[in-house]
Specification:
Shape: globular
Helix content: under 10%
Bound molecules: fe (ii) ion
Strand order of the largest sheet: 15-19-12-9-14-7-6-29
Number of strands: 29
Radius of gyration: 22 Å
Length: 389
Protein backbone atom coordinates (compact mmCIF):
# COMPACT_ATOMS: atom_id res chain seq x y z
CA UNK A 1 0.00 0.00 0.00
CA UNK A 2 1.20 3.54 -0.57
CA UNK A 3 1.25 6.17 2.13
CA UNK A 4 -1.49 8.43 3.51
CA UNK A 5 -3.11 10.73 0.99
CA UNK A 6 -6.10 13.08 1.03
CA UNK A 7 -7.97 14.93 -1.66
CA UNK A 8 -10.98 17.25 -1.68
CA UNK A 9 -13.43 17.94 1.12
CA UNK A 10 -13.36 15.78 4.24
CA UNK A 11 -14.66 16.50 7.77
CA UNK A 12 -12.21 17.00 10.64
CA UNK A 13 -13.12 13.70 12.31
CA UNK A 14 -14.00 10.36 10.70
CA UNK A 15 -17.53 8.99 11.08
CA UNK A 16 -18.97 12.42 11.89
CA UNK A 17 -21.48 14.49 9.93
CA UNK A 18 -19.96 15.99 6.77
CA UNK A 19 -22.45 18.79 6.27
CA UNK A 20 -23.69 20.21 2.98
CA UNK A 21 -26.79 22.22 2.18
CA UNK A 22 -29.24 21.05 1.05
CA UNK A 23 -27.66 17.65 0.27
CA UNK A 24 -29.34 14.62 -1.21
CA UNK A 25 -33.02 14.47 -0.16
CA UNK A 26 -32.37 17.55 2.01
CA UNK A 27 -30.52 15.33 4.49
CA UNK A 28 -27.74 17.90 4.68
CA UNK A 29 -24.78 15.52 4.53
CA UNK A 30 -22.28 13.80 2.27
CA UNK A 31 -22.35 10.00 2.59
CA UNK A 32 -19.37 8.14 4.00
CA UNK A 33 -17.98 4.97 2.39
CA UNK A 34 -15.18 3.13 4.18
CA UNK A 35 -13.06 0.98 1.84
CA UNK A 36 -11.09 -1.53 3.89
CA UNK A 37 -8.64 -4.35 3.23
CA UNK A 38 -8.39 -7.73 4.96
CA UNK A 39 -11.67 -7.20 6.72
CA UNK A 40 -11.15 -4.19 8.93
CA UNK A 41 -7.58 -5.16 9.84
CA UNK A 42 -5.35 -3.41 7.30
CA UNK A 43 -5.19 -0.24 5.19
CA UNK A 44 -8.40 1.66 4.48
CA UNK A 45 -9.71 4.84 2.93
CA UNK A 46 -12.81 6.88 3.69
CA UNK A 47 -14.66 8.59 0.84
CA UNK A 48 -17.59 11.02 0.93
CA UNK A 49 -20.31 10.69 -1.72
CA UNK A 50 -23.01 13.10 -2.84
CA UNK A 51 -25.48 10.20 -2.59
CA UNK A 52 -25.38 6.84 -0.78
CA UNK A 53 -23.11 4.45 -2.73
CA UNK A 54 -25.56 1.60 -2.23
CA UNK A 55 -28.28 2.72 -4.70
CA UNK A 56 -28.38 -0.32 -7.00
CA UNK A 57 -31.31 -0.71 -9.42
CA UNK A 58 -30.51 -3.98 -11.22
CA UNK A 59 -28.22 -6.95 -10.68
CA UNK A 60 -27.80 -9.52 -13.44
CA UNK A 61 -25.37 -12.29 -14.36
CA UNK A 62 -22.91 -11.28 -17.07
CA UNK A 63 -21.10 -14.54 -17.86
CA UNK A 64 -17.78 -16.01 -16.89
CA UNK A 65 -14.14 -15.30 -17.67
CA UNK A 66 -12.56 -18.69 -18.12
CA UNK A 67 -8.81 -19.14 -17.85
CA UNK A 68 -8.07 -22.25 -19.94
CA UNK A 69 -4.81 -23.77 -18.75
CA UNK A 70 -3.30 -26.36 -21.11
CA UNK A 71 -3.19 -29.73 -19.36
CA UNK A 72 -0.36 -32.22 -19.71
CA UNK A 73 2.28 -29.73 -20.84
CA UNK A 74 5.68 -31.24 -20.03
CA UNK A 75 7.93 -29.37 -17.63
CA UNK A 76 9.77 -27.11 -20.05
CA UNK A 77 10.80 -23.57 -20.78
CA UNK A 78 8.23 -21.56 -22.71
CA UNK A 79 8.63 -18.57 -25.01
CA UNK A 80 5.52 -16.85 -26.34
CA UNK A 81 5.67 -13.86 -28.65
CA UNK A 82 2.73 -11.70 -27.64
CA UNK A 83 3.78 -8.42 -29.25
CA UNK A 84 1.25 -8.97 -32.00
CA UNK A 85 -1.48 -10.60 -29.92
CA UNK A 86 -4.67 -9.65 -31.81
CA UNK A 87 -6.33 -6.39 -30.84
CA UNK A 88 -9.78 -7.00 -29.43
CA UNK A 89 -12.31 -5.76 -26.92
CA UNK A 90 -11.48 -2.94 -24.56
CA UNK A 91 -8.98 -2.48 -21.69
CA UNK A 92 -11.07 -4.91 -19.63
CA UNK A 93 -12.82 -7.26 -22.04
CA UNK A 94 -9.80 -7.51 -24.38
CA UNK A 95 -7.56 -9.22 -21.83
CA UNK A 96 -5.99 -12.46 -23.01
CA UNK A 97 -4.82 -14.66 -20.09
CA UNK A 98 -1.34 -16.10 -20.64
CA UNK A 99 -0.18 -17.60 -17.34
CA UNK A 100 -2.11 -18.35 -14.19
CA UNK A 101 -2.21 -20.03 -10.82
CA UNK A 102 -4.33 -19.52 -7.70
CA UNK A 103 -2.36 -16.40 -6.72
CA UNK A 104 -2.00 -14.54 -10.00
CA UNK A 105 -3.32 -14.28 -13.55
CA UNK A 106 -1.04 -12.61 -16.08
CA UNK A 107 -2.75 -11.33 -19.23
CA UNK A 108 -1.92 -9.31 -22.30
CA UNK A 109 -4.30 -6.74 -23.69
CA UNK A 110 -4.23 -4.72 -26.89
CA UNK A 111 -7.64 -3.04 -26.74
CA UNK A 112 -9.45 -2.28 -29.98
CA UNK A 113 -12.07 0.02 -28.45
CA UNK A 114 -12.55 2.42 -25.54
CA UNK A 115 -13.77 0.85 -22.31
CA UNK A 116 -17.46 0.14 -22.82
CA UNK A 117 -18.65 0.24 -19.21
CA UNK A 118 -17.25 0.87 -15.76
CA UNK A 119 -15.38 -2.08 -14.26
CA UNK A 120 -14.68 -3.24 -10.73
CA UNK A 121 -12.54 -6.22 -9.76
CA UNK A 122 -14.08 -7.37 -6.49
CA UNK A 123 -11.55 -10.04 -5.56
CA UNK A 124 -8.18 -9.10 -7.06
CA UNK A 125 -5.80 -6.17 -6.90
CA UNK A 126 -4.60 -5.30 -10.39
CA UNK A 127 -1.35 -4.01 -11.80
CA UNK A 128 -1.84 -2.69 -15.32
CA UNK A 129 1.62 -2.20 -16.82
CA UNK A 130 1.38 0.27 -19.70
CA UNK A 131 3.76 -0.95 -22.39
CA UNK A 132 2.35 1.58 -24.87
CA UNK A 133 -0.23 4.33 -24.61
CA UNK A 134 -1.06 7.36 -22.50
CA UNK A 135 -4.28 8.39 -20.88
CA UNK A 136 -5.98 8.42 -17.53
CA UNK A 137 -7.59 6.20 -14.94
CA UNK A 138 -10.92 7.58 -13.75
CA UNK A 139 -12.17 6.43 -10.35
CA UNK A 140 -14.11 7.84 -7.42
CA UNK A 141 -10.68 8.84 -6.03
CA UNK A 142 -10.21 11.26 -8.95
CA UNK A 143 -8.19 11.45 -12.15
CA UNK A 144 -4.86 9.61 -12.36
CA UNK A 145 -2.59 10.30 -15.35
CA UNK A 146 -1.13 7.26 -17.06
CA UNK A 147 1.95 7.18 -19.30
CA UNK A 148 4.16 4.56 -20.96
CA UNK A 149 6.01 2.20 -18.61
CA UNK A 150 3.69 3.02 -15.70
CA UNK A 151 2.66 0.31 -13.31
CA UNK A 152 -0.93 1.34 -12.58
CA UNK A 153 -1.89 -0.29 -9.28
CA UNK A 154 -5.64 -0.56 -8.77
CA UNK A 155 -6.86 -1.86 -5.40
CA UNK A 156 -9.71 -4.37 -5.48
CA UNK A 157 -13.23 -2.91 -5.39
CA UNK A 158 -12.10 0.28 -7.15
CA UNK A 159 -14.64 1.01 -9.87
CA UNK A 160 -12.76 2.43 -12.85
CA UNK A 161 -12.60 3.51 -16.44
CA UNK A 162 -9.21 3.29 -18.14
CA UNK A 163 -9.06 5.77 -21.03
CA UNK A 164 -6.31 6.05 -23.62
CA UNK A 165 -5.51 8.97 -25.89
CA UNK A 166 -5.93 8.50 -29.60
CA UNK A 167 -2.77 8.19 -31.67
CA UNK A 168 -0.86 5.35 -30.01
CA UNK A 169 -2.56 1.98 -29.66
CA UNK A 170 -2.56 0.91 -26.03
CA UNK A 171 -0.56 -2.23 -25.22
CA UNK A 172 -0.96 -3.59 -21.71
CA UNK A 173 0.35 -6.29 -19.39
CA UNK A 174 -2.24 -7.02 -16.70
CA UNK A 175 -1.41 -8.77 -13.43
CA UNK A 176 -4.36 -9.79 -11.24
CA UNK A 177 -3.38 -10.64 -7.66
CA UNK A 178 -5.49 -12.71 -5.31
CA UNK A 179 -3.56 -11.18 -2.37
CA UNK A 180 -3.03 -7.50 -1.63
CA UNK A 181 -0.30 -5.82 -3.68
CA UNK A 182 2.27 -4.06 -1.53
CA UNK A 183 5.93 -3.11 -1.41
CA UNK A 184 8.70 -5.30 -0.03
CA UNK A 185 8.66 -4.66 3.73
CA UNK A 186 12.46 -4.47 3.75
CA UNK A 187 12.21 -1.23 1.72
CA UNK A 188 10.38 0.49 4.57
CA UNK A 189 11.79 1.69 7.87
CA UNK A 190 9.89 0.97 11.12
CA UNK A 191 8.19 4.36 10.66
CA UNK A 192 6.66 3.24 7.36
CA UNK A 193 8.84 5.47 5.18
CA UNK A 194 10.89 4.21 2.25
CA UNK A 195 14.43 3.73 3.50
CA UNK A 196 17.31 5.69 2.06
CA UNK A 197 18.81 3.21 -0.40
CA UNK A 198 15.50 1.64 -1.45
CA UNK A 199 15.26 1.66 -5.26
CA UNK A 200 12.31 4.07 -5.21
CA UNK A 201 10.48 6.25 -2.71
CA UNK A 202 7.31 8.21 -2.01
CA UNK A 203 8.04 10.87 -4.64
CA UNK A 204 7.97 8.17 -7.32
CA UNK A 205 4.42 7.10 -6.40
CA UNK A 206 1.66 9.16 -7.97
CA UNK A 207 -1.91 9.17 -6.74
CA UNK A 208 -4.99 10.96 -8.09
CA UNK A 209 -4.39 14.73 -8.12
CA UNK A 210 -7.76 16.09 -9.22
CA UNK A 211 -11.16 15.18 -7.79
CA UNK A 212 -13.70 13.92 -10.30
CA UNK A 213 -17.05 14.94 -8.87
CA UNK A 214 -19.65 13.49 -11.22
CA UNK A 215 -23.18 14.44 -10.19
CA UNK A 216 -25.42 12.52 -12.58
CA UNK A 217 -28.70 10.85 -11.63
CA UNK A 218 -28.69 8.27 -14.42
CA UNK A 219 -28.56 4.53 -14.77
CA UNK A 220 -24.88 3.55 -14.79
CA UNK A 221 -23.65 0.10 -15.67
CA UNK A 222 -20.76 -1.42 -13.72
CA UNK A 223 -19.26 -4.77 -14.71
CA UNK A 224 -18.06 -6.55 -11.57
CA UNK A 225 -15.66 -9.48 -11.63
CA UNK A 226 -15.18 -11.79 -8.66
CA UNK A 227 -12.99 -14.73 -9.52
CA UNK A 228 -14.23 -15.95 -12.89
CA UNK A 229 -17.81 -14.71 -12.38
CA UNK A 230 -19.07 -11.53 -14.01
CA UNK A 231 -22.05 -9.59 -12.69
CA UNK A 232 -23.58 -6.43 -14.10
CA UNK A 233 -24.79 -3.84 -11.61
CA UNK A 234 -26.85 -0.88 -12.71
CA UNK A 235 -26.62 1.92 -10.18
CA UNK A 236 -29.15 4.76 -9.97
CA UNK A 237 -26.47 7.42 -10.20
CA UNK A 238 -22.90 7.69 -11.44
CA UNK A 239 -20.60 6.25 -8.73
CA UNK A 240 -17.85 8.88 -9.22
CA UNK A 241 -19.71 11.35 -6.99
CA UNK A 242 -17.01 11.70 -4.34
CA UNK A 243 -16.21 15.18 -2.97
CA UNK A 244 -13.25 14.09 -0.87
CA UNK A 245 -11.41 11.12 0.60
CA UNK A 246 -8.40 10.20 2.67
CA UNK A 247 -6.52 7.07 3.56
CA UNK A 248 -4.03 4.49 2.35
CA UNK A 249 -6.16 2.68 -0.25
CA UNK A 250 -6.27 4.35 -3.67
CA UNK A 251 -4.98 3.71 -7.19
CA UNK A 252 -1.49 4.96 -7.93
CA UNK A 253 1.21 4.76 -10.57
CA UNK A 254 4.89 3.98 -10.39
CA UNK A 255 6.91 4.41 -13.57
CA UNK A 256 9.46 1.68 -14.34
CA UNK A 257 11.93 4.35 -15.47
CA UNK A 258 11.88 5.74 -11.92
CA UNK A 259 13.31 2.47 -10.59
CA UNK A 260 16.88 3.15 -9.37
CA UNK A 261 18.84 -0.02 -10.11
CA UNK A 262 21.23 -1.37 -7.51
CA UNK A 263 24.40 -2.67 -9.15
CA UNK A 264 27.67 -4.12 -7.91
CA UNK A 265 31.10 -5.22 -8.94
CA UNK A 266 29.63 -8.66 -9.64
CA UNK A 267 26.14 -9.88 -10.57
CA UNK A 268 23.36 -8.93 -8.16
CA UNK A 269 20.48 -11.42 -7.72
CA UNK A 270 16.91 -10.59 -8.80
CA UNK A 271 15.64 -9.52 -5.33
CA UNK A 272 17.52 -6.21 -5.78
CA UNK A 273 15.08 -5.53 -8.60
CA UNK A 274 11.96 -6.28 -6.59
CA UNK A 275 9.23 -3.70 -6.95
CA UNK A 276 5.96 -5.19 -5.60
CA UNK A 277 4.85 -8.28 -3.81
CA UNK A 278 1.61 -10.07 -3.05
CA UNK A 279 0.77 -13.45 -1.57
CA UNK A 280 2.47 -16.07 -3.74
CA UNK A 281 4.49 -13.87 -6.09
CA UNK A 282 6.77 -10.87 -6.55
CA UNK A 283 7.14 -8.33 -9.36
CA UNK A 284 10.62 -7.07 -10.29
CA UNK A 285 11.77 -4.35 -12.68
CA UNK A 286 14.81 -5.06 -14.85
CA UNK A 287 15.70 -1.44 -15.53
CA UNK A 288 18.46 0.06 -17.71
CA UNK A 289 21.61 -0.04 -15.59
CA UNK A 290 25.37 -0.10 -15.40
CA UNK A 291 26.79 -3.61 -15.68
CA UNK A 292 29.11 -5.22 -13.16
CA UNK A 293 32.50 -3.50 -12.83
CA UNK A 294 34.85 -6.25 -11.57
CA UNK A 295 37.45 -6.80 -14.33
CA UNK A 296 36.54 -10.49 -14.49
CA UNK A 297 32.81 -10.07 -13.91
CA UNK A 298 30.43 -12.23 -15.92
CA UNK A 299 27.92 -9.61 -16.92
CA UNK A 300 24.93 -11.82 -17.66
CA UNK A 301 23.16 -13.91 -15.00
CA UNK A 302 24.60 -17.29 -14.06
CA UNK A 303 22.71 -20.42 -15.01
CA UNK A 304 20.41 -21.38 -12.21
CA UNK A 305 17.86 -23.96 -11.19
CA UNK A 306 15.18 -21.89 -9.55
CA UNK A 307 13.85 -23.85 -6.64
CA UNK A 308 10.23 -23.41 -5.59
CA UNK A 309 9.73 -20.57 -8.05
CA UNK A 310 8.48 -20.11 -11.61
CA UNK A 311 10.18 -17.16 -13.34
CA UNK A 312 8.32 -15.07 -15.89
CA UNK A 313 9.96 -12.30 -17.86
CA UNK A 314 8.01 -9.89 -20.02
CA UNK A 315 10.31 -8.03 -22.40
CA UNK A 316 9.41 -4.37 -22.76
CA UNK A 317 12.20 -2.37 -24.37
CA UNK A 318 15.85 -2.54 -25.42
CA UNK A 319 18.13 -5.47 -26.10
CA UNK A 320 18.14 -8.21 -23.51
CA UNK A 321 21.78 -9.24 -23.03
CA UNK A 322 21.34 -12.83 -21.88
CA UNK A 323 18.65 -13.92 -24.36
CA UNK A 324 18.55 -14.61 -28.08
CA UNK A 325 15.35 -14.60 -30.09
CA UNK A 326 13.19 -12.59 -27.71
CA UNK A 327 11.49 -9.43 -28.89
CA UNK A 328 9.31 -6.68 -27.47
CA UNK A 329 6.21 -8.30 -26.05
CA UNK A 330 7.83 -11.72 -25.60
CA UNK A 331 7.17 -13.73 -22.46
CA UNK A 332 9.56 -16.38 -21.20
CA UNK A 333 8.58 -18.84 -18.51
CA UNK A 334 11.43 -20.67 -16.81
CA UNK A 335 9.74 -23.08 -14.44
CA UNK A 336 10.94 -24.51 -11.18
CA UNK A 337 13.32 -27.43 -10.97
CA UNK A 338 15.16 -27.22 -14.30
CA UNK A 339 18.14 -24.97 -15.09
CA UNK A 340 18.14 -21.97 -17.38
CA UNK A 341 20.79 -19.38 -18.03
CA UNK A 342 22.40 -17.12 -20.57
CA UNK A 343 22.18 -18.19 -24.17
CA UNK A 344 25.37 -19.43 -25.85
CA UNK A 345 27.68 -16.60 -26.85
CA UNK A 346 26.08 -13.95 -24.65
CA UNK A 347 28.74 -14.22 -21.90
CA UNK A 348 31.51 -13.38 -24.38
CA UNK A 349 29.53 -10.68 -26.19
CA UNK A 350 28.74 -8.91 -22.91
CA UNK A 351 32.38 -8.82 -21.71
CA UNK A 352 33.00 -5.38 -23.20
CA UNK A 353 29.59 -3.94 -22.39
CA UNK A 354 29.38 -1.33 -19.64
CA UNK A 355 25.62 -0.91 -19.44
CA UNK A 356 22.38 -2.47 -20.61
CA UNK A 357 19.35 -0.64 -21.96
CA UNK A 358 16.95 -3.53 -21.31
CA UNK A 359 13.63 -2.95 -19.61
CA UNK A 360 11.67 -6.01 -18.53
CA UNK A 361 9.04 -6.90 -15.96
CA UNK A 362 9.63 -10.10 -14.01
CA UNK A 363 6.95 -12.02 -12.13
CA UNK A 364 8.25 -14.82 -9.92
CA UNK A 365 5.63 -17.09 -8.45
CA UNK A 366 6.03 -19.57 -5.62
CA UNK A 367 3.37 -21.96 -6.90
CA UNK A 368 3.60 -23.48 -10.39
CA UNK A 369 2.07 -21.48 -13.20
CA UNK A 370 -0.25 -22.93 -15.81
CA UNK A 371 0.17 -21.90 -19.45
CA UNK A 372 -3.06 -20.95 -21.20
CA UNK A 373 -4.36 -22.16 -24.54
CA UNK A 374 -3.93 -18.63 -25.95
CA UNK A 375 -0.29 -18.52 -24.82
CA UNK A 376 0.44 -21.91 -26.39
CA UNK A 377 -0.99 -20.66 -29.70
CA UNK A 378 1.94 -18.19 -29.70
CA UNK A 379 4.46 -20.76 -28.46
CA UNK A 380 7.98 -20.91 -29.89
CA UNK A 381 8.43 -24.72 -29.83
CA UNK A 382 12.19 -24.47 -30.43
CA UNK A 383 12.79 -22.46 -27.24
CA UNK A 384 13.50 -25.38 -24.85
CA UNK A 385 16.41 -26.40 -27.08
CA UNK A 386 17.68 -22.86 -27.72
CA UNK A 387 20.65 -23.29 -25.37
CA UNK A 388 22.30 -25.76 -27.78
CA UNK A 389 25.13 -24.23 -29.81
FE1 LIG B 1 16.32 -16.68 -14.09
Amino acid sequence: MPYYRRLGLIPPKRHTLHRVSPGYKNEGIYYEEVVTTQGFSRAYSIAYHLKPPTRVKHVEPAGRVKVEVVPDLPLRHVHTKTGKVPTKGDPVTGRVPMLANADVVISRCRPAEPQAELFRNATADEIVFVHKGSGRLLTMFGVLSVRPFDYVVIPRTTTYRLEFDKGVEADLLVIEATGNIGFPPRYLNPDGQFRLGAPFAERDLHGPREPLITDREEDTSVLIKDGDRLTRYVTAHHPFDVVGWDGFVYPFTFNADDFEPITGTIHQPPPVQQTFEAAGFVVCTFAPRLLDTHPDAIKVPYAHSNVESDEVLYYVRGRFGSRRGVEEGSFTLHPRGIPHGPHPGTIVVSREATRTDELAVMVDTFRPLGVTRQAMELDDPSYPKSWLD
